[in-house]
């Protein structure tokens, strides 16, 4: 099992796909890593030599911000917005959509499970 940037990447998948399991590496970065190290796109992680794994590890440590460092940076950016009390920060603080989505309907992912509100009682005469 290959361990890169503190993440156990799957051994039976292609290298390009397995690298995406690392937070901060998406399709483009994974492809760039494989091309810069001249690793074949159809090669599986379990077919990599120890030397190739070491090269991947060193390249990621040197050129990319991943995992803990990236998570910390994103959290600090959000905290900065909240401390400034700008509109985006207030939306983060209230747990509402930040990027202009509607909230009258939808937005259940951010707002949580719907809570029923009691309506007016009908008066019968």
TrEMBL record:
Organism of derivation: Rhodovarius crocodyli
Signal peptide, first to last residue: none
Name recorded for this polypeptide: Small ribosomal subunit protein uS13
GO MF terms held by the record: rRNA binding; structural constituent of ribosome; tRNA binding
Listed GO biological process terms: translation
Cross-referenced PROSITE patterns: RIBOSOMAL_S13_1, RIBOSOMAL_S13_2
Pfam family, any one: Ribosomal_S13
Designated gene of the protein: rpsM
Chain's role: Located at the top of the head of the 30S subunit, it contacts several helices of the 16S rRNA. In the 70S ribosome it contacts the 23S rRNA (bridge B1a) and protein L5 of the 50S subunit (bridge B1b), connecting the 2 subunits; these bridges are implicated in subunit movement. Contacts the tRNAs in the A and P-sites.
Keywords: Ribonucleoprotein, Ribosomal protein, RNA-binding, rRNA-binding, tRNA-binding
Alphabetized HAMAP family for the sequence: Ribosomal_uS13
């Amino acid at each position: 099992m290959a361990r890169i940037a503190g993440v156990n990447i799957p051994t039976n998948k292609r290298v390009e796909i397995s690298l995406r399991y690392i937070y901060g590496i998406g399709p483009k970065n994974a492809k760039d890593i494989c091309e810069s190290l001249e690793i074949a796109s159809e090669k599986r992680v379990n077919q990599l030599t120890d030397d190739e794994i070491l090269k991947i590890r060193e390249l990621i440590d040197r050129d990319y911000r991943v995992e803990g460092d990236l998570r910390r940076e994103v959290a600090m950016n959000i905290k900065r917005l909240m401390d400034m009390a700008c509109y985006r920060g207030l939306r983060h603080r209230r747990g509402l959509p930040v990027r202009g989505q509607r909230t009258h309907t939808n937005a259940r992912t951010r707002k949580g499970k719907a809570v029923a509100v009691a309506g007016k009682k009908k008066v019968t005469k």
